[in-house]
Amino acid sequence: MTDMTTADTQENTTTTPVVNPLERRIDISISLAEIEGEISARLKNIARTVKMPGFRPGKVPMSMVAQNYGGQARNEVIGQAVEAALEAKLKEQNLRMAGYPNIQPVADAGEGKLGFTATFEVYPEITLGDVSGQSIERPVLVVTDAEVDQTLDVLRKQRVSYSETDRPAQKDDRVVIDFVGRKEGVEFSGGKADDHSMVVGAGTMLPDFEQAIEGVKPGDKKTFDVKFPDDYQAKDLAGSTVQFDILVKKVEVAQLPELDAEFAKSLGSADGDVAAMRAEVRANLEREVSKRLEAKTKQQVMDALLAVNPLDVPKALVEAESKQMADAALRDMESRGMNVKGFPIEPAWFIDKAMRRVKLGLLLTEVVKTNTLYAKPEQVRAVVDEFSASFEDPKEVVRWYYSQPQRLAEAEALAVEANVVQWVLSNVKVSEKSVAFDELMGNAA
């Protein structure tokens, strides 16, 4: 970057707040003489090595160099000068710019000057609120044989096989259908599929759709209405009632495997020991229950922080975060084998969640800095050990994480987050509340 921080370059620079409380405007005036001098120097440097037909390197006339490279050189020099002037003023006024500035030229900056206006957002100044008045209900759940049995039933259903039947479809049957959805007689994006498999009562489709499928037989054709929820992500469908035409191709009956040695082997037990399988399922379930209990507690902690720290956040950060969330949603769908080409996922759908993430990111940074809650090496190692516990060779997983320091970033972030959670819990009113297994695991009706 060219150094354009001389007094002549910086003069007539002012900072003016505008409507957005986080938006700032800086008017920049730079010396035209310095700009022209830097352009000339840059063109001379280009002329030393530039190649053009009919001329040896270094012998191209300056007029031709200027004709071919003058515009590029001017844009680069002015851009760097404006950037340097802006950076100097930001440093002078102790402003932290969020996102990128909008640079616009000024018509009349004065004789011998080029003028520009930079409009941008800054990070908010945060003074942490007092969380001592907040209350948190820490969820608790002890894993018993009943939860182990329920989990084994889920694992059996994941290994279900199906056989065709001619009877009407019942709950837990699988049906294969073609369907077309229309809103006011016109097909809508994402509303058509051929050979679509669904399990009756599994909740993979909207309630009206699920209800209409129950009782159908192979060869049936059916037309029915489906109402989309008012908060449905696709805004053009939210709250709308549409019509679906379906053709039933198959109805298949579920057949669950027996809870025996063969089933134990399918879960990785080499000798088919059912008791050992149950013990491993219990251990895995206890880890998962612990994670979910911690997640529910953490959500309340974050809610408490937000409640006592109302915060304006830069729109640029929220927009960037919502874009990342939309991209992540598409990648997730693609990883599940879905064809996402042309799929209507808009960043605007994620604005509220993005706003929460950005606010929490800024607040957590301030809480950590103010209370010295940085992760200690032993805390990071504990997180890595927890990551690796479910793998066949935990030691190898630990070595993989520690072979490159950047791989520890996720573990370090989680350790820091855990420190914040503990700090908040030590400063708020905490009570315990029993939670049902189905509710915790997301199986509640």
Structural commentary:
- The chain has helices at 7-10, 32-47, 62-92, 145-158, 207-213, 261-266, 274-308, 315-335, 351-371, 377-388, 394-403, 409-425, 437-441; strands spanning 14-17, 23-31, 97-106, 113-122, 135-140, 161-164, 174-183, 186-199, 221-227, 241-255, 429-434.
- It is built from 13 helices and eleven strands.
- The strands form three sheets. Strands 6, 7, 8, 9 and 10 form a five-stranded antiparallel beta sheet that branches. The protein has a four-stranded antiparallel beta sheet with strand order 1-2-4-3, with helices on both faces. A two-stranded parallel ribbon has the order 5-11.
- It folds into three domains: 7-122, 2-Layer Sandwich (Alpha-Beta Plaits), CATH 3.30.70.1050; 135-143 and 273-441, Orthogonal Bundle (Trigger factor, domain 2), CATH 1.10.3120.10; 160-255, Chitinase A, domain 3 (Roll).
- It starts with 6 loop residues before the first helix and ends with a helix.
- By secondary structure, the chain is α+β, with helices and mostly antiparallel strands.
